[in-house]
Amino acid sequence: MKHLKQHLNDGIREALNTLAFPDKPFTISPSKNPDFGDLSTNVALLLTKELDKSPIQIAEDIKGQLETLQLNHIDSISVTQPGFINFTLSASFYQSNLKYILDTGDEFGRSSIGHGKKANVEFVSANPTGPLTVGHGRQAVLGDTVASLLEWNGFDVTREYYYNDAGRQMRILGQSVEARYFEALGKPFEFPEDGYQGNYIINIAKSILHHHGSDLERDHDQFRETAENAIFSDIKNTLSELGIIHDQFSNEKTFYDNGAIDQLLTDLKAKELIYESEGATWLKTSALGKDQDRVYIKSSGEPTYRLPDTAYHRDKVERNFDEIIDIFGADHADTYPDVLAALDALEIPVDHIRVLIHQFVTLLRDGEKVKMSTRKANFVTLEDLVKEVGKDVVRYFFIMRSMTSHLDFDLNLAADQSDKNPVFYLQYAHARIANIMKHGESLGHSFSHDFDSSLISEKEEFTLIKHLMRFPELSEQLYESLEPQMLATYLQELAAHFHKFYGKCKVITDDSALTQTRLALITCAKITLGNGLSILGLSAPDRM
Fold first, then answer.
1. Residue 184 and residue 58 share a domain
2. CA 166 remoteness from chain centre
């Protein structure tokens, strides 16, 4: 389809040149109404002012010129209000593309946009203060899927996890474990204000008691170190259950230890962008086009998010990635622009940094909101969610809505194993195709690449083929948007087109030639479904 659009684009430009019409940028896209054709262009609408003609008249002029060119694969050209030029593609064009899908197989839909390029995707990045929650889960799945979308488009991708291990939260974590340690010993203890509660803190304290004895003094490093290691081990295990493996872990402490943060402050001071006021250290973001200055280091000596994260992003840029993708929750929307502004002020390139902001998750059970508090350990862990509804359901539910939209995660729907559940609807389509093919084999109809594509004639067959052929172009659109929901929607539509086709067109028939052709068609659908499910990190079962 991509090459056909280029062919059409060249034909339209030739027609404009012959008519002495201005050559302006225009679009060629699928027709909104399939009754008007397969593709449509808005070129006539863009020329009406300059030519002082109605867009309908301009479209008719261009149509007449295009018809003289006798463009390949174009069956007919029409004009519709308010001035669109529509193209109906020939049946042979769609019929011939079945062989292309079969020949490319598992590679069908891949692009080479990122060939020879490196990308870094940072996601999850939850501080190791407790188990991953449902809220962390959305970012985990979004990040992993975005990384897969980039890999599908040819990029060499590094999945990275960055966490703050030098701040207040980690100090409170250590104090919480320490309190539970002395509590277990029957000694006086003071639980910190806003301390972390929950059995996992008690279990870590008991582990320290078991492995390190009862003689640890207050403020011992062991409390925080053991907690961090234990929680991080739990985080990695939970992510692995979702099929998520990070290639690199980076932490805030590194940038203090290696002098990167001191160097950053020195460089910003040289630009006169750092100053002291009210006992705090400030970044002069008002000089960088922002509405007000930002605190870098509080009067307590505690750094804000912006300082170490700017050093971290500087490090990522210096690692020479062609694309740097950050997946952040909505709570980061106000902070990341300051990070990029500071880097830009230091003449560090930021154009290749793309920040994706996702909205939060509400967990629903029986139509009621499940109340959660991380501090009080009153939450559903991501691990518990995976155990309750399964990896595939969790992954799909987290990406089936746009990342910019708030997500209601309906536990009742997630647990439903009927076609009401969108995950089962998709996987059932794949399994149903596999079952049809197996049934065909049992009757002596083994699939062969030797089939007659001209036997494709039913409307439902063409609708299915047309949707399959959108997949390569969709892959490139996915790279541009990095929005996994687009793929989820495409696959749902594909499953619907297949089920509608199967309801109208019998695959295994008494006509051997027609059977072979329809087996080829459903094999193409199975390939495309499998490739899409693979990108989303979902299984593509042959039996359900």
1. no
2. 30
Q: Can you give the pTM of this predicted structure?
A: 0.91
Q: Which of 185, 217, 241 is the last residue of a domain?
A: 241
Q: Residue 98 phi/psi, 5° resolution?
A: -60, -45
- Tokens 């149903």 identify what position? 432
Region of residue 320 (left: phi > 0; alpha: psi -120 to 50; beta: else): left
The token duo for 140 is 């985990």
User: Is residue 386 situated within a structural domain?
Assistant: no
Q: Which of 192, 207, 241 is the last residue of a domain?
A: 241
Q: Is 147 found in the same domain as 197? A: no
**Number of domains the chain contains:** 4
Q: What is d(CA 407, CA 385) in angstroms, rounded to the nearest whole number?
A: 15
> Are residues 104 and 127 both part of a single domain?
no
Whether residue 293 sits in one domain with residue 159: yes
Q: Domain residues for 284? A: 118-164+243-358
Torsion of CA 277, 282, 284, 290, to 10 degrees: -110
Q: Please check whether residues 314 and 187 belong to one and the same domain.
A: no
Residue 33 maps to which CATH number? 3.30.1360.70
User: Are 132 and 254 within one domain?
Assistant: yes
CA 273/CA 270 separation, integer angstroms? 8
> Do 108 and 472 contact (CB within 8 A), yes or no?
yes
Each residue's pLDDT expressed in tens, for the chain with a length of 544 residues? 667 888 899 999 999 999 999 988 999 988 888 888 899 999 999 999 999 999 999 999 999 999 999 998 999 999 999 999 999 999 888 888 899 999 999 999 999 999 999 999 999 989 898 899 898 999 999 999 999 999 999 999 999 999 987 678 888 999 999 999 999 999 998 999 889 988 999 999 999 999 999 999 999 999 999 999 999 999 999 999 999 999 999 999 999 999 999 999 999 999 999 999 999 999 999 999 999 999 999 999 889 989 999 999 999 999 999 999 999 999 889 899 999 999 999 999 999 999 999 999 999 999 999 876 555 555 789 999 999 999 999 999 999 999 999 999 999 999 998 989 999 999 999 999 999 999 999 998 887 788 999 999 999 999 999 999 999 999 999 999 999 999 999 999 999 999 999 999 999 999 999 999 999 999 999 999 999 999 999 999 999 8
Q: Which amino acid is at 15?
A: A
Any residues with CB less than 8 A from the CB of 277 and at least 6 apart, and which? Answer: none
d(CA 390, CA 387): 6
Residue 368 lies in a domain: no
Residues 220, 303, single domain; the answer is no
CATH at residue 474: 1.10.730.10
The DSSP symbol for 130 reads S
Residues in the chain: 544
Sole residue written with tokens 């300059």: 50
Q: Do 327 and 446 sit in the same domain of this protein?
A: no
**Tell me, what DSSP letter sits at residue 319?**
T
Tell whether 388 is covered by a domain.
no
- 212, 223 Cβ separation under 8 angstroms: no
